[in-house]
Amino acid sequence: MGTSKKIDVYEMITNQVLELMESGCIPWQKPWNARGANRNLISGKQYRGINVFLLSCTSFSTPWWLTYKQAADKGGKVRKGEKGTQVVFWKPLLINEENPATGKTEKKKIFMLRYYTIFNLDQVDGIEAPVEPEVVELEPIAAAEKIVTEMQNAPKIEESASGKACYYPQLDKVQMPFFTDFDESEKFYSVLFHELGHSTGHESRVNRPEGMKDIKFGSDNYSKEELTAEMTAAFLCGEAGILPATVENSAAYLQGWSKKFKESAKMIVCAAAAAQKAADYILNVKFNDQD
After folding, report:
1. Does the reported pTM lie above 0.85?
2. Cα separation of 289 and 280, whole Å?
3. 121 and 185 belong to one structural domain
4. In total, how many domains does the chain have?
5. Angle, helix 251-263 to helix 6-22, in steps of 10 degrees
6. Does one domain contain both 116 and 149?
7. Is-contact 28 234, C-beta < 8 A?
8. Domain enclosing residue 36, as ranges
9. Of 79, 78, 26, which is closest to residue 56 (Cα–Cα)?
10. Which of 6, 85, 3 is nearest to 47 (CA)?
C-alpha cells in the first residue's frame, strides 16, 4: 500500500502529470477514449477524480484494470517486466482532536490520500476481457444539450454580442457568445461546460467560496479554479462524446501549468477532485466528500 506521508502521494501524482505534459499529452484534454471508461475488472466501478485523467493517457486497448492480487485470485498472471500504474483513493481515518469549545477530546473523521498499483488487462495473461453489450451512441450535440437542460439548480445562461464567455458569481449568471459565433458546435458546448463548471462553486451548489471571490489573475486560487473548470468541461465533454476545445495546447500554456504544479503539488489532485464533484452536480449524480 502507499506511503504514510500524504504529501508524497500528491508529489507522486503531480510528477506523473508533469511527465505526461512534457511528453505532449494534456491529461484533461482526453478524459476518455474509444475503449470506454476505465474501470476495475472485479468490481466494475469506474475510476474517478485524478485517476480518470491518469488512466486516459495510457495506450492500452482495454478499459479493464486490476491489482496484482486481483489478477492472481482470478487465475491470471501479470507478465514479467510489466510496469503498473498508480491510482489514488481517499481513506477515512478517525483521529483524536481536542474541541476548543469544551476542552474535551473528541473523535474526528478525516480523509487521507493513499495510492495503490493497478495493471491493465493487456498486461495480464490468463484472463479474458468481458464481452460487453453494444451501446447505442447518442448524437453528440444532443447529448451535450441534454446535460445543459437537465442540470439541477442551473444558473441563468445568456447569449450576447459581447463575445465574452464568463460566469458572474454575484448574478449567478453564465454569459456566452452567440452559438453562431462558433465555427464548431462542439466548441460552444465545451466553453459552456467550462463556465457551468465555475458556476458549481456557488454557495447554492457545491460551494467553493475560494473560487467565487475576486481572485487575482495568476494566483493559486485563480489557477486552481480555472483548472477545476477546465477538468469539469473535460468530464462533461467525455460524457457527451465530444472533444474538449477550451485548452490551448501551446508551449506557454504547458510551461505555466508546470510551474504551478511544481509550486503546489496538491493542486492537480485537489482540482481533479473538485472537478469530479462539479461534474457530478451538473449530471445530477450523488457524490461523497471523499470522492
Report:
1. no
2. 12
3. no
4. 2
5. 170
6. no
7. yes
8. 6-125
9. 26
10. 85
Please name the residue that has the C-alpha cell 458546448.
189
Closest CA to 63 of 43, 31, 37, 27: 37
DSSP code per residue over 166-190: EEETTTTEEEEE-GGGSSSHHHHHH
- Under 8 Å CB-to-CB from 126, ≥6 apart: which residues? 75, 76, 77
- Give Rg (Cα) of the chain: 20
User: Could you give the count of Cα atoms lying within 13 Å of 39 in the half-sphere of its Cβ?
Assistant: 12
From residue 8, alpha-carbon distances to 2, 11, 224, 239 in Å are: 9, 5, 20, 32
Same domain, 272 and 145: yes
**Contact yes or no for 268/182 (Cβ under 8 A):** no
Lowest-pLDDT choice from 18-22, 116-120, 131-135, 172-176: 131-135
Q: What is the rounded distance in angstroms from the CA atom of residue 230 to the CA atom of residue 31?
A: 11
> Could you read off the pLDDT of 131-159 as tens digits, one per residue?
876 655 556 689 999 999 999 999 999 99
Side chain identity at residue 183, one-letter code: D
Whether residue 179 sits in one domain with residue 106: no
pLDDT in tens, 25-78: 788 876 555 567 899 999 999 999 999 888 988 889 899 999 999 999 999 999
Q: Is 94 exposed, middle or buried (0-12, 13-18, 19+ CB in 10 A)?
A: exposed
What is the pLDDT at residue 31? 57
C-beta separation of 269 from 230 below 8 A: no
